[in-house]
Amino acid sequence: MLYRIAQLLIKEFLQLKRDKSARFRLLIPPMIQMLLFGYAATFEVFNVSTAMVDQDHTPESRALVAAFVHSSRFELSTVASTRDEAEQAVASSSAQVGIVVPPGFAQLLRKGQSAPLQVLLDGTNSNTALIALGYVNDIANSFGQSMALDLAQRTGHALARPLVHIDVAQRYWYNPNLNSRWFFVPGVIGTLTLITIVNLTAFAIVREREVGTLEQLLVTPIRPAEFILGKTLPFFLIGLIQVGLVAAVGMFWFHVPFVGNPWLLFAATCLFLISILSIGLFISTICTTQQQAFASNFFVLNPMFILSGFSFPIASMPHFLQWITLLDPLRYYLVIIRGTFLKGVGLDVLWPQMAALAAIGAVLLTVSVLRFRKALD
């Protein structure tokens, strides 16, 4: 049996060696996608296009405008003279944020009173709008505190309403600089592996059936179980190699620290690969052409990505969707890979995710193998 499986492995790798485009697809696109995701996927917001309206025309209002202009978070795209012009800039998408400094702004500050500041936000992208509003509040609060202290120093008297100041000692564990790439890059490793391995497994077996070589293999002495093992084992090895290469890009190019146990990550990766290989094998049993496999992959992979917690928090999803995420192997692998990369946690913490991956892999593999054996018969 081992001899027959070895011969089938040799056949698969020889076929891969002859197919230059396949070698290119296995190595270059994942690296390019890793670089693109690493740079493009981020929660941070910079250079938000801003329409600024200064209706006060005082040194204080100009200082506030300068604070926004000199911030890397905002980019002055429109200098408006009225609020309507700022509204038009936001409505036409030439500005994402409109900031209006009303008349009498400086006069209220000089009296030690709260001064209003109107902010118009393009809410079509709610995430960007909320983050930008947080930056506006930070800049405005910092400016207000500096003006209040300056007023107290110039008058030599304490403010009628004393300035309340609380020192908050902040300490961010596992990601001291709150670098969002440290969150996204480990997730990209799992996502790219999922897409690549499921596509390889489903397309390779369907291609064998479509071109007629599957029937030729079945008339040989090889048994169905040996055929399944010989067809999936190369993709398992390819998955391990790809995880290693993409993880190396994340560690050495994006400088994402790895502080965990590499053997624990290796074991979890093996369980994850078994799960997604089973998904590709199952897809191959319900498809007869590569076009059907492509459509089925799209139907399966997109929900797995969305429900995995890669970018959308699972806790924020409706309860019935949270239950569905328990069937997604990518959900558990992302917890493991982020935990080993950033936190350095061990098996005592990650064993529930490991157990869930093992259970999902065992069930999916059993169902897929039984269905594939029936399709072969």
Brief account:
With 377 residues, the protein is α/β, with parallel strands linked by helices.
Describe the structure.
- GO terms for molecular function: ABC-type transporter activity.
- Residues 149-375 form the ABC transmembrane type-2 domain.
- It holds the Pfam family ABC2_membrane_3.
- By secondary structure, this protein is of the alpha/beta class.
- It folds into two domains: 7-41 and 179-375, no CATH class; 48-155, 3-Layer(aba) Sandwich (abc type-2 transporter like fold).
- The protein is 67% helix and 6% strand.
- The protein has helices at 2-18, 20-40, 59-69, 83-91, 105-110, 126-155, 180-211, 213-218, 224-252, 262-286, 290-306, 319-324, 329-343, 347-376; strands spanning 48-54, 74-80, 97-101, 118-121.
- A four-stranded mixed beta sheet has the order 2-1-3-4, sandwiched between helices.
- Strand 1, helix 3 and strand 2 form a beta-alpha-beta unit.
- Residues 159-168 have low confidence and may be disordered.
State the strand order across the main sheet.
2-1-3-4
Strand content: 5-15%
Approximate helicity band: 55-70%
What is the count of distinct domains?
Answer: 2
Overall geometry comes to elongated
**Radius of gyration, whole Å:** 29 Å
Q: Average pLDDT, to the nearest integer?
A: 82
Secondary-structure-based class equals alpha/beta
User: DSSP helix count?
Assistant: 14
Number of strands: 4
Main sheet makeup: 4 strands, mixed
Which sequence of SSEs, written as H and E, runs from N to C? HHEHEHEHEHHHHHHHHH
Rounded to the nearest angstrom, the distance between the terminal CA atoms is 19 Å
Keywords: Cell membrane, Membrane, Transmembrane, Transmembrane helix, Transport
Pfam families: ABC2_membrane_3
Family: Belongs to the ABC-2 integral membrane protein family.
InterPro entries: ABC-2_transporter_component, ABC2_TM, ABC2_TM_bact-type
